[in-house]
Amino acid sequence: MIIKTIDAKVLSRMFLAGAKNLEAKKEWINELNVFPVPDGDTGTNMTMTIMSAAGEVSALDNPDMETLAKAISSGSLRGARGNSGVILSQLLRGFTRSVHKSKELDALAIAAAMDKAVETAYKAVMKPKEGTILTVAREAALKAAEIAPAAEDLQPYFEEIFAHAEATLARTPEMLPVLKEAGVVDSGGQGLLEVLRGAMDGFLGKEVDYNDFQKTGSTPVTKISPQAEADIKFGYCTEFIILLDKEMPIEEEHSFKEFLTSIGDSIVLVADDEIVKVHVHTNHPGQAIERALTYGALSRMKIDNMREEHQEKLIKDAENLARQQAEEEKELTPPKETGFIAVSAGEGLSDIFKELGTDYLIEGGQTMNPSTEDMLNAIEKVNAKNIFIFPNNKNIVLAANQARDLTEDKNIIVVPTKTVPQGITAMISFVPEKTPEENEQEMLEAISKVRTGQITYAVRDTRIDDKEIHEGDIMGIGDNGILAVGSSKEDVAKRTVDAMMSDEAEVISIYYGADTSEEDAETLASTLEEAYPDCEVEINKGDQPIYYYILSVE
Q1: Looking at the chain, which terminus has fewer C-beta neighbours within 10 angstroms, N or C?
Q2: pTM of the complete model beyond 0.70
Q3: Rounded mean pLDDT, 103-119
Q4: Could you give the C-alpha distances from 168 to 21, 133, 175, in angstroms and in order?
């Protein structure tokens, strides 16, 4: 049977099948990462991004193209993690922007949407590299545009596009020498290919268990005393997200909050252009839902009967939430001039940022890249006109930039710090008397002089930067590649510092991780002091996971 067009129902099925296939292949995609380090990885980041959107799509009941497009775009945008996740979210955003007014899509419309997807994704990346997910997406879009005018049937049309994307992925090692040396194809490109493979399955009607997108499971009911039950004024913890039909004016936001106050307490309401997050404790969850439906479709609905939860946990959570609400009310003061947000992993590193004046810390790093939504939540909580964000990881910069672009009521400055030492240096460089623009330039100049090395272990055998690496080896990873490989943490750390040193160096900083003792750090410091007597050597407790040491030379 010849199929010339697809509607929202089929596109929804294709999208969910693509998400499901990516989730099934995420660990395999993680293994394609060039650097054999135990980090968050491409497969994990892309999966968390698309599953955020899949959760919203699966909650829709017979959506039209516009509703489906909003769910895919909003869900992936706010769930985006890591560079690969942000790029995937931008591909989805561009595609849905092109199709949201359509009822059905033929080959020409699909080709136009793929072209828009690529255009949007390339704009999101400051310095696009060929041989990556962008190349695979662009080549697929070019093939789609080339064959669309003559396409009579979508099945062979999709098959030819997929075959070309697969062939492009196979050529990525020829475009990026680092891939060829490691003997792998680009992991982001492979992730995109798995989305397309799953979408083909969805188009062909193959079975996909969409229930997997809803991770709700039954929990045992704990009966508590009638007295404890009576102490709970509002019995249902109600949470949902509204996918707005149109932007909610600030007056309507206040009106909605007043309504929720009239039927419950413990209210949290966060709105942006496209969605509203709602949390309320009430005895009438249906009333909250009915009112919410006047603003748009609902997603991620959750209603818990708090009288069936354990008494101590219930009371503790309610008190904490009430205290938090009270503190937030007290903080409704005029915004200060400048605020700071930093990404940090490890209690010691977080303490350093707090001491330097950071207003809000986002927990994350290599092991878990914060999402765009995490960034937006942090921005919301910092009461300042100008906010500097320090991602402190190259894989988090894009998510921070995306959050900046989605923020309209505050001036967000993303300082592209790629390591924790760069973030600390940027914070130290801040001068209150200078303008945000002047401080940004000072910070950029300061971080350009920071060289960072991170000591960790290899999780598999590989070859990179002309170095043979075996599982379990200790590696020193610099700003632009692997600097040292060996079997001793201290020896690799010393050789990593050797590779970073310059005649202008004045300070060597050691941040020791959760798996490194203070005694070992002091031994390393003594070795470095002996080797570089003209440099000051500082020891800091970092508590970071995965990395035995984070080292910097300035």
Answers
A1: N
A2: no
A3: 96
A4: 20, 10, 10
